[in-house]
Amino acid sequence: MIRRGRPRDAAADLAILQAGMELFLEVGLEGASMEQIAKRAGVGKPTIYRRWSTKEELIAAAMETLIADEVGGLTAEAIATRSPYELVEAVIDTAADATTTREYRALVARVYGSAVTHPELMATYWRRYILPRRRLATALLLRAREMGTVDADADLDVAIDMMVGAVTYRVLQPEPPEADEMRRYLRAVYRQIGLLP
Amino acid sequence: MIRRGRPRDAAADLAILQAGMELFLEVGLEGASMEQIAKRAGVGKPTIYRRWSTKEELIAAAMETLIADEVGGLTAEAIATRSPYELVEAVIDTAADATTTREYRALVARVYGSAVTHPELMATYWRRYILPRRRLATALLLRAREMGTVDADADLDVAIDMMVGAVTYRVLQPEPPEADEMRRYLRAVYRQIGLLP
After folding, report:
1. Which of A78, B37, B52, B86 has the smallest C-beta neighbourhood within 10 Å, fewest atoms?
2. pLDDT digits over A37-87, tens only?
3. Is residue A2 part of a domain?
């Protein structure tokens, strides 16, 4: 194969990854083609194939690059020094806003939607986005368990799945909530686990 | 358009719906075409278009027809007369088996995956499969609340989302559980809500 097209550069890479992520959200992995991605990014197909040999690889790379690994202000230090109730109270508004955008719903839908047929995408999302959050959530639950608001025999991994699972399930249901309703919903979820009074 | 092809009959309809459901699970809504569905069902495209004008309608119809609306032996009568602990204990093995098949995982992935772009599919799944189960789960939680094992102020819809959300999230994660692990997982979930001691 003759390697043609523009010189490889970071701007083109980013345009390709953004186009790939957009198409993944809009039409899913099976609906997106390398041709569409190239067209939307304004590059030739060879430019893409020089970097990624399949759309699966390209979308996984887009996740690595484009999905934030920051965790909304919650830090290990804050967890060690402030009360779980106080910390959860402080993140509720941000969490309610973040989980009720159309982009968040679309990303959850597509990542879940490809989990069985393309587990490598879920694995990337897991490593890049989920795991850092789970580590902090575990630390928070351990503190709450020390303080007696979370049951001593609670399985913390299951508790995290129940919180994340409820929220991601809720946003995919018919009539997804607005931010105000999500705030009430999150309070009920955290209360059930023992992270709010 | 000239209406040709086989005479419309129930067997052809069923073959079309089954082919549609298979392709939905394998390649998703965006990956499936009416042409592929026709080919797999062994009918001409006009036979399909005579009944369904879009693949969205066809897949929704496949869900209506092919997804069971039975609820695994749990009845309103049993809920009224037996203890929640006993009933939950009795369904755990069945639930662990049912939620760890590849078919279940594939269906959850695809229904969730199409929820934002094709909410009518989730709506059909919701009405056909989810709602009958939620009604029973609510009755069970009300009984458990009467008996004091579920918190008096628990939000029951949120509690159901936490149970279903955890399980469906877990089966889409990397390294999905086998039935034995799922049994332990379900116990932890039910215990957290107050449906097992």
Report:
1. B86
2. 999 999 999 999 999 999 999 999 998 888 766 566 788 899 999 999 999
3. no
Average pLDDT over residues A165-181: 97
Do A89 and A169 fall within a single domain? yes
Mutate to test the interface with B, among A114, A162, A167 (most CBs of B within 10 A): A162
pLDDT tens profile B170-196: 999 999 999 999 999 999 999 999 999
Do A188 and A92 share a structural domain?
A: yes
Sign of CA dihedral A47, B117, A181, B123: negative
Residues whose CB falls within 8 Å of the CB of residue B131, separated by 6 or more in sequence, listed in order:
none
Whether residue B132 sits in one domain with residue B157: yes
Half-sphere exposure of B119 (CA within 13 A, CB side): 10
Asked whether the beta carbons of residue A166 and residue B162 sit closer than 8 angstroms, the reply is: yes
How far off is chain B from A25, nearest CA to CA, in Å? 9
Based on the structure, what is the number of domains in chain A?
A: 2
Enumerate the residues of chain A whose CB falls inside 8 A of the CB of residue B190. Answer: none
Distance CA A175, CA B153 (A): 24
What range does the domain containing B91 cover? 76-193
Residue matched to tokens 């979820």: A189
Best of A23, A24, A107, A112 to disrupt the B interface by mutation (most B CBs within 10 Å)?
A: A112
Residue A94 pLDDT > 60, yes or no?
Answer: yes
Model confidence pLDDT, tens digit, residues A96-111: 999 999 999 999 999 9
Q: Check which CATH number belongs to the domain holding B24 and give it.
A: 1.10.10.60
Q: Do both A176 and A86 map to the same domain?
A: yes
Structure tokens at B143: 């009984």
Q: Which pLDDT band, with edges at 50, 70 and 90, does A34 fall under?
A: very high
B168 and B97 both lie in a single domain: yes
Minimal Cβ distance to B113: which of A112, A123, A188: A112
User: Whose CA is closest to B37, among B21, B53, B51?
Assistant: B21
User: Which CATH number does the domain housing residue B86 bear?
Assistant: 1.10.357.10
Q: Which residue of A has its CA nearest to B28?
A: A30
Statement to judge: residues A55 and A116 lie in one domain: no
Same domain, B32 and B84: no
Mean pLDDT for all residues in chain B: 91
Residues A39 and A110 placed together within one structural domain of the fold: no
**Distance set, CA A105 to CA A26, A190, B16, B112, B119 (Å):** 11, 20, 31, 10, 12
Residue of A nearest to B121 (CA): A174
Kindly provide the ipTM of the predicted complex, given to two decimals: 0.90
Examine the fold and report which residue of A43, A66, A89 is the final residue of a domain before the chain moves on. Answer: A66
